[in-house]
Every structure is written in C-alpha cells, then in structure tokens.
Amino acid sequence: MSEFIAQTIARIERSAQDKSALRPRGAGSKDFHACALNGDIVDMRPYSGIVNYDPTELVITARAGTPLAQIEETLAERGQMLGFEPPRFSSEATLGGCIATGWSGPRRAYAGSVRDFVLGMRVLNGRGQDLHFGGEVMKNVAGFDVSRLLTGAFGTLGLILEVSLKVLPRPQREVTLSFDMEQATAITTMNQWAGQPLPLSATAWFDNRLYVRLSGPSPAIDAALSKLGGTPLEDTPWKALRDQTLPSLQGDLWRLSIKSSSAPLSLPGTRVLEWNGALRWLATEAPADTVHAAARAAGGHALRYRGTNMQAGVFALDAATLKLHQRLKQALDPDHVFSPGRLHPAL
C-alpha cells in the first residue's frame, strides 16, 4: 500500500470518528458545480500515473490524480482516444475529476457516456476500506456495478483512487459541416439524420446554425458529404462546446436532459443544443420551478449547472428518489465523511 493511500485511510478514519468532512479534489476545475463545498480538501494530484495501458486490448488504468491531458496524449500516440470526449475546463484537470463528475462531451450520443467506458475502479469508502470493483475487461461485473454508481457522484459516495477505462481507436478522418437553420428545423433534421446510416459523431445547434461532425473512413465521409451538403469548416466548435468557452454557455446555466425530438422550449434565455437535441443548455434567469417544470413536460429533467443560487441544490428530487439517494449514501458513507451537501442540502 502506498504512503498516500495509508495517510488518506487514516484521515478518513479520523473524520468518521470526529464527525468532520473531507472533500476529494483534483485540480478544482469543476468546483463551480456545487451547492456547498464542505470538508477539508483531499488533494488527489500526488496520487498520479498510468498503472497499465494495453493498446491491443483497448484498456487503460490510471490513478485518480493523473492529468487528463497526459492520458489523452498517451492514447493519441497509439492512435486511440477517450470515446466519451470528456470536458476539461483546465489544462490541469485530472482523471479522477473527469470520472467523479461523469460529464461527457459532444461525442456522447454516438460513442456512449462516461459510465459506458468505466470497466473497474479502486475506491476508499467512508469507513476507510480499500475496495475494488469491476476489472479490466468488458464483462467483469456480476450484480450491482458500484464503479458506475460512483461515476457522476462528485465524490459524495467514496474517494476514487484508480480507474480502468475502455478506449477507442481514433477516426481515420473527421469533417464538420455547417448549415444555416432555425431551432425547430434543426431538431427535426438532427433526429432524422440520427436514424440514417451516416457516420455522425457530434451535432450541435446555436446562433441559428446547425453543426454536424462526420467521423470514420474516407469513403463513408465522402458519401455523407454528397448526401448532406452543407459547408465544411476548418474552425470547428467542438473544443469550445467540450470545454464550455462559447459565449452562449456563460452566466447562470442550466443543463436539460430531455427527449431529443422535443420542440423548442418556451423559456427565456440563450440556448445551445447538443446530442441531437437531447442535451439542451440554457443560460437564463428564469425561476428554478419554471425550468424544472419545462424539462419534466419535455420528458426529462433539469440540473442547475452553474450560477449564483447553487445553494438550492443542483437538481430537484421527489421524496422517493431522495430516500434512495440517502440510502446509497448511508451504505457507502454512513458517517457522511465525503462532500456532504455538495449536490443537495439533504445529502
């Protein structure tokens, strides 16, 4: 056992005993997404490095403090990539933060989410136990998959030490097309194209323009170009979408996950659509109840992503769902050591 892990276990045990809190943290690039940041920081960056990488098996295992940039550079050297295209927000962003947030980038609708790529995980729970879940192959889980449960939990259920991920080959070629198009037409178009045998890898709409990325072998790209038309772009929007540097994604921001075919929502503010319309970003000052109600009516839910009133909680939970979350918290972190109240005041 490394010195870092031994010291961290001791900190967890002390915190459980004296009822204090700890907050796992990498570079802190996603600290904005919290209704409260409670607890002494456990800086994961010293626990860094790639543990194992087998390009032939398309699997990489790395420690939580490993910079995401280092992992992506290592994969790129072998013509591979993280298929879920994770947001970075900072050059110092870590793998642990990437997995803890569970956020995926523009490729998610076609390649899968972060959880789809998590094969296994090493975790310290709220009792300081060193636990291993999953493994380094695709079919490695019998019963409840705890590693995927911790993906997206923002460090509230346990401290992620190491993660094994499936990786993908990089596409042979990529082309981005642009179309002048208003929102309702773009929603219909994206959903129609998603049902066709096209080499799509990302779609987005903002400022009355639809953007479509094609990825794959050159013959497939050429066939799609002749069918779709549009204007090929050299200056593509995907990095700005991935790291949220677009002007349309600033200010008080909501993240709505709804049915992709839902009509434009009658809410004030500036919006950006991704994932064929299933992900809708909304920069608005509309009341929270109004945003939540609109998302539910469209067959989904809304998260308060960033803003000045995060204390109310990043998501709305009904009584039954809240009870389920509380039971999960009690099972993995009974003394509420890890990041209490980060995602919801009752958690």
Radius of gyration: 21 Å
- Provide the domain count: 2
Number of contiguous helices? 11
Helix/strand order, N-terminal first: HEEEEHEHHHEEHEEEHEEHEHEEEHEH
Uncertain parts: none
Q: How widely separated are the two ends?
A: 31 Å
What class do helices, strands and sheet pairing give? alpha+beta
What percentage of amino acids are in beta strands? 25-35%
Topology readout:
Blueprint: H1 3-18, E1 22-25, E2 40-43, E3 50-54, E4 59-63, H2 68-77, E5 80-81, H3 95-101, H4 108-111, H5 114-117, E6 118-124, E7 130-134, H6 146-150, E8 159-166, E9 168-169, E10 173-180, H7 183-194, E11 200-206, E12 209-216, H8 218-228, E13 231-233, H9 238-243, E14 253-257, E15 270-274, E16 279-283, H10 288-297, E17 301-306, H11 319-332
Parallel strand pairs: 1-2
Antiparallel strand pairs: 3-4, 4-8, 5-9, 6-7, 6-8, 10-12, 10-13, 11-12, 11-15, 14-16, 14-17, 15-16
Q: How is this structure best summarized?
A:
This protein has 347 residues and is α+β, with helices and mostly antiparallel strands. The chain contains 11 helices and 17 strands.
Can you put this structure into words, describing what you see?
- With 347 residues, this protein is an alpha+beta fold.
- It folds into 2 domains: 3-169 and 325-332, Uridine Diphospho-n-acetylenolpyruvylglucosamine Reductase, domain 3, CATH 3.30.465.10; 173-306, no CATH class.
- The protein has helices at residues 3-18, 68-77, 95-101, 108-111, 114-117, 146-150, 183-194, 218-228, 238-243, 288-297, 319-332, and strands at residues 22-25, 40-43, 50-54, 59-63, 80-81, 118-124, 130-134, 159-166, 168-169, 173-180, 200-206, 209-216, 231-233, 253-257, 270-274, 279-283, 301-306.
- The protein has an 8-stranded antiparallel β-sheet with strand order 13-10-12-11-15-16-14-17.
- A hairpin with a 5-residue loop joins strand 6 (118-124) and strand 7.
- It is globular.
- The mean pLDDT is 93.
